[in-house]
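Archive entry. Fields below.
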Amino acid sequence: MAVTLADVAARAGVSSATVSRVLSGDYPVAGTTRSRVLRAVAELEYVVDGPASALAAASSDLLGILVNDIADPFFGIVAGAVQGELDSGTDDRVPRRLAVVCNTGGSPERELTYLTLLQRQRAAAIVLTGGAVEDPAHRASLAARLRRLAAGGTRIVLCGRPPLDPLEPDATAMPGPDAEAAAVPGPDCEPDARPVAAARGRSARRAARGAVLTVAFDNRGGAHALTAHLLALGHRHIGYVAGPSERTTTRHRLAGHRAALAAHGAAGPDRAERLTVHAGGYDRSCGYRGAVELLRRAPETTAVLAANDTVALGVCAALRDAGLRVPQDVSVAGFDDLPFSADAAPGLTTVRLPLQEAGAVAGQLALGTRPAPPGGTTTMPHALVVRASTAVPRAGA
Amino acid sequence: MAVTLADVAARAGVSSATVSRVLSGDYPVAGTTRSRVLRAVAELEYVVDGPASALAAASSDLLGILVNDIADPFFGIVAGAVQGELDSGTDDRVPRRLAVVCNTGGSPERELTYLTLLQRQRAAAIVLTGGAVEDPAHRASLAARLRRLAAGGTRIVLCGRPPLDPLEPDATAMPGPDAEAAAVPGPDCEPDARPVAAARGRSARRAARGAVLTVAFDNRGGAHALTAHLLALGHRHIGYVAGPSERTTTRHRLAGHRAALAAHGAAGPDRAERLTVHAGGYDRSCGYRGAVELLRRAPETTAVLAANDTVALGVCAALRDAGLRVPQDVSVAGFDDLPFSADAAPGLTTVRLPLQEAGAVAGQLALGTRPAPPGGTTTMPHALVVRASTAVPRAGA
DNA sequence: CTGTTAGCGCCTTCAA
DNA sequence: TTGAAGGCGCTAACAG
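PREDICTED_STRUCTURE:
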């Protein structure tokens, strides 16, 4: 049906192997032959058959990107940056690799499902972005799955979620470097993760092969900085509209928040608990509902931290609808610094995460363009961005 | 390296053909055999080799989605909806198809490039979303390319851009139905497109095969409604911060705007021209710069229409920075009704486009789940959403 | 530098 | 209902 290598070969008067070599580029071919082949290719409008080529070469040029919500700019920015790396490396007009963006909707099952689909396509690399679901069963099966894929040669990169748990000593028969790579805790590891001292130091070079690499955000540190900012302004009744409770992102940000409160000698755990509302998701309506609930529970609240910028907008809307002004009556802060945050009215105080950069790094790691970092984990810096949505609490408070 | 069909067959004590049949499902196999095979599959953690299967079956389960900017929620929402259709149809836990989201960045070359990549992967269908570039050369080569793909059996769906131009009578040797399908003008066709009367009526059923289908937005109508709304409020100096000039979306929205002005006997073409600023893109900063330029050219402006909601936010920011209040001093309206628009302060008056629905329809068309519409084009309705960013002009104006 | 020759892993007739 | 066998289009040795 379609035109094949053999057709081109016949037209150019060469063997199909020669055509293949011309097309793949990385093999010496005489100039005249090459141009003759290229002409035939053009005349016949030949397009390589990806599946056949992948089968024969036992490799593919697909890069998978898993996102929790493709409609959320957070993921769009990261995914776009990952994809951008595909086009950069090559000088050719046509990038060789294809990025496959898969929308899991935050569902663990779909995450696993898409992993299967990508494995089926023999994806060269897979980048998992955004917070991970914390359910122990899923956590374990996902980790096992990823390790197996990595061991099979698929490059695996986690972007925006903590590294895989360290392996149990006997969990793998192969003396692979995965264990060490995963064992050095990044900032988003469990606070109580015991550093495996013996594992350090010898893995940096080997980590690139078979290891699960990580590009982490400092969610904990960001939330800490944000809370410290509010405390410094004089706030003592700080509410927190958190994301879904079973997500790593949620827990780490909350932990940073609580740590800052504790360091300040501010609230006891039960009060902090009362001032924390778990929204069901990361969208605007969750923020709205969360704020309503928070005001009901704790009308004395003078500041609200939100799970992210989108949620923060919902919080602002709820406050406005309740007749409260931001920041005169209540301060509000978000997280991520998405593009619209600067344009909200008032401009949103937030923590900027370098999404673009993180995506680019993840992409390079996935392509093998960038050496694996020591320990397997790169941590991106955060920056507190103070805008107009936070101010000193009103006098009466 | 990986476990193959033959391995499973050996384990289950059957032939590889039987395993293949069990896995593909659509073939009679004895119950006991089937369960034995499935057990072997599970024990070996067998995963089908996509490329091999695509090669042998001469078909693939990849669906391509081209977007102009994956970080823009407009595209995220549409792409997410398209992808959602893949998971719905099947009752299985594992959807068979994989969506490939490709980010063109609005570049014609990359659009063509990704088309090649998808063709190479033998994608079953391709959905092109968002406004198209209007450069005649690109337009022609893209159309030719899409028609060829469609003729080759790839389902092609345009979502959010106008249908392909009608074919020249002799442009194709095959008596394919494409010509008719593309010939019935949707609302976003050229105003002067001559309806090919003879073509009507006989194509609806056949359009599904080999035709390029379209899901269109009524950009023209939406802009008309928005402008009429401002005119009704009493505005007479209405500025327009348009998108990049060479995009279909830009031109159609602008045309609707101008038509409304003309119908109202409002502005002469030269004045309308002076009040129109072309931003270089669809992002916030373009809106900001566009508004600054507009204020410079026409300080008497009392209302500004923006290319879309994101641009509108930039416009609002520029106005605020210029000491102007929205809507007291200047009214602002956007387009699309993205989620954040409701939360802007003031809430943005805009035109709601059913992005989710359009994406779903496009997905169904691409999967063949939904019959092709008569004429090949489905037009989605728009709705004017009036919020707080538009009001009557200030008294002095 | 170029041609020849085997497969890659699976699907799909064709027989049994 | 199941098995055997050929080939999908390409790449990667291995010769020449």
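CURATOR_NOTE: The longest helix of chain B spans residues 73-89.
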